[in-house]
Design brief:
The protein is mainly alpha-helical and 135 residues long. It has helices spanning 7-21, 46-58, 60-78, 86-99, 106-133.
Length: 135
């Protein structure tokens, strides 16, 4: 990721995709209180979820978390050859921090990874299509 990468926008897109498919994960975050639903385990109707995600998108804590997440991913990618240095320490610290979050599980990391890879695949395909349009 280059210096001009908009980490906040990338993080926002990834997290909104995750929350649209796994709305129950909103309850793990401080901005999750915008989900006004009595039973987090019940299926959330599409209209309520859309309104909720619109509120989440504007929440300053969400936007900060999204930017920090995408920035950490960017740092990890740029530091792949530095496993013995800051990268390992940073990733271990992030893992410890998230493991202390009540309700956060390995499955949550799996969902996050899936949607991050999906975002990167879509982004790469879009860039490739745009480069062909300029021919």
């Amino acid at each position: 990721m280059s210096c001009d990468t908009d980490f906040e926008q990338i993080g926002v897109e990834v997290f909104l995709r995750i929350f649209s498919r796994h709305p129950e994960l909103l309850s793990l975050f401080p901005f999750g209180e915008v989900l006004r639903h009595d039973d987090q385990d019940a299926e959330v109707n599409a209209e309520l979820l859309t309104a909720t995600l619109d509120e989440v998108r504007q929440h300053p804590t969400f936007r900060n978390h999204a930017a920090a997440f995408a920035s950490a991913i960017g740092m990890a990618v740029e530091s792949l050859d530095d496993w013995d240095g800051d990268l390992t320490a940073t990733l271990l610290q992030l893992g410890r921090m998230h493991s202390e979050t009540e309700g956060f599980t390995v499955h949550n990391f799996s969902a996050l990874g899936h949607h991050l890879l999906q975002h990167n695949t879509i982004h790469s395909q879009t860039e490739e299509m745009n480069s062909h349009d300029g021919l």
